[in-house]
Structure formats: structure tokens, C-alpha cells
Design a protein that fits this description.
The chain is an alpha/beta fold. The chain has a single domain, classed as Rossmann fold, CATH 3.40.50.2300. The protein is built from five helices and four strands; from the N terminus they run βαβααβαβα. A four-stranded parallel beta sheet has the order 2-1-3-4. β3, α4 and β4 form a beta-alpha-beta unit. Its EC number is 3.1.3.48. InterPro entries: LMW_PTPase (IPR050438), Ptyr_pPase (IPR023485), Ptyr_pPase_sf (IPR036196), Tyr_phospatase_low_mol_wt (IPR017867). Belongs to the low molecular weight phosphotyrosine protein phosphatase family. This is protein-tyrosine-phosphatase.
Amino acid sequence: MPDQVSVLFVCLGNICRSPTAEGVFRQLVTEQGMTEHLHIDSCGTGNWHIGKSPDARAMAAADRRGVDISDLRARQIKAEDLDRFDYVLVMDRQNLADVRDIWHQNGGTEPRLFLEFGESGQAEVPDPYYGGEDGFERVLDLIHEASQGLLEDIRGRLA
């Protein structure tokens, strides 16, 4: 049985969905007193925002729910990430296809859609970048719900 599990959240640019997922999941893990058992990170498939803070709207929406993601900085996924992380969780089918290309070439942890851990019935976390504030709220709802299912899965892995 492992004593630490690592989770990587992946979206397109690593400024909206995946840093939100990292922040929400990090907070849930902290509330459950499990921080010593988890390593949590996020990244994007694209390279446009490397080194940048999350989108201001994503930070504001998270902050309204008591989640601080202002310390996060965007980075691009690397092949080694698939060897380093136990869970590689992507936000949509295009992210899944992009990360699977890396996986097919290099092996490692097979990427999965993050919302497989939720009960919303949705397969994808919609990208709120080009929409309004309500899109960021919807993303938070989906991520929070799937994070609870993910934590239960990890508890089983740690047992």
C-alpha cells in the first residue's frame, strides 16, 4: 500500500480549469487532514501561459468559495509527468487525446477524464475562458463534486 499518492490535473492552458481543480482538491485534502499523503499539481497541454498566474476570473471565483489559487503558476505537461503521477486527470476529450498521444509514445500513467470521479453525468469540464462569470461557477461546482469522488478513490488506494 502506498503512503503517498500523486495527482496531476490537466487542461489546455493551465490558467482556468486545472489550477481550479488543484486548488479545490488541495483544500479538500487539507480539510480531511490528508496533506502528507498527497502530492497535487496541475499543468496544461499548451505553452501559451507558462509562468503566468491563473486567469483573474478563475482566481476570483475560487476566492469567493474560500479557495486561494493565486500562488499557482502555469506550466506545460512533460512526458515525465506520466511517470511521476499516479493520477493524470484531464478536463475534456481534447486534453485526453493530447495527453494520450504522449502516453502512447512514452507509457506511464494512463490519463483519464477527471469527471469520471463525479456524479454529474457530464464527461467534460467546460472551458470557461471565453464565457461569463457563471461558467467559472459551473466549473467550480463540477470540480468540487468530482474531487470528493476522487478523494474516496484515493482513500481506497491508501487503505
